Amino acid sequence: MMFIRWNVEPVAFKVLGVPIMYYSLLFIAGTVLSVWILKRVYERNGMPWEHLQVLVVLSLVGLFLGARIGHCLIYEYDYYWKHPLEIFLPVRELPGGGYVFSGYEGMASHGGALGWIVALVIYSRVTREKIIRTLDAIALVLPLAACFIRLGNLVNSEIVGSGTSVPWAFVFERVDGVPRHPAQLYEAMAYLAIFGGNMLLYRRVGLRRYPGMLWGGMLVTVFSARFLLEFLKERQVSFEEQMSLDLGQVLSIPFIFAGMLFLLFAWRVSRGNG
């Protein structure tokens, strides 16, 4: 049976000897496109462009630090406890001494979510924007940004799926010769569909009619998709082999329940306004 053989070089090109990774380019592309969409949303809802600039800076810092620290502490704690500088620097120590540029290959979406929440609280205090309206605006583009990140994971041949014999299976040659589910692609497609659904819903109800609905719906759909697709992924760390659910699924459950609470809040507010 023919499968898709995947062996993409993660380095797109080099600038003065410094490798520029496809992952980084996809992250930047997703961020730029998300900001462009958010700019139009802010303008339509009378929210200052200056506030969006503050949000973008704080969000990038919060997402990066949360995702990076989350991965290092959750998935590779033993290594990074001995190499703490590598949490923040894009290098890896060689066994024989010295360092090599590795990029930021390890990112945890749940840690990124927590880091972004901290950034949002700071943003609200600085700009005095209502958190709930900002959350609904951000909910429109977060799935799109997540889609680009998962495409970056696909290029890096990381977060691979479990073995399968389906015709569209990928053989990640940089990992092994086993045909696997392209779980990164599944997840990217799910997030893109959620993004499309959110935009259609936004066009119908806007940001004011059901405060918290877009954010709550995004949390429920994104993390439900993440929870279900984890069944098609290879376990990332050895201790997960002893768990009935993997760590990604366990960490997704609180976000799903939080989303349900936001949906309940939106429903109660709409009934009160009605």
Write up this protein.
The chain has 274 residues and is mainly alpha-helical. The chain has one domain. The protein contains eight helices and seven strands. The protein has helices at 22-44, 49-74, 77-82, 109-127, 131-155, 183-205, 213-229, 247-273; strands at residues 4-6, 11-15, 18-21, 91-93, 99-101, 170-172, 179-180. The protein has a three-stranded mixed β-sheet, with no helix packed on it. A two-stranded antiparallel ribbon has the order 2-3. The protein has a two-stranded antiparallel ribbon with strand order 4-5. Strand 6 (170-172) and strand 7 form a beta hairpin. Helix 2 runs antiparallel to helix 4 (109-127), helix 5 (131-155) runs parallel beside helix 7 (213-229) and helix 7 (213-229) packs antiparallel against helix 8. The longest helix has 27 residues, at 247-273. The radius of gyration is 20 Å and the shape is globular. The termini are far apart. The relative contact order is 0.12. The model has no long low-confidence stretch (mean pLDDT 86). This is Phosphatidylglycerol--prolipoprotein diacylglyceryl transferase. It is a multi-pass membrane protein.
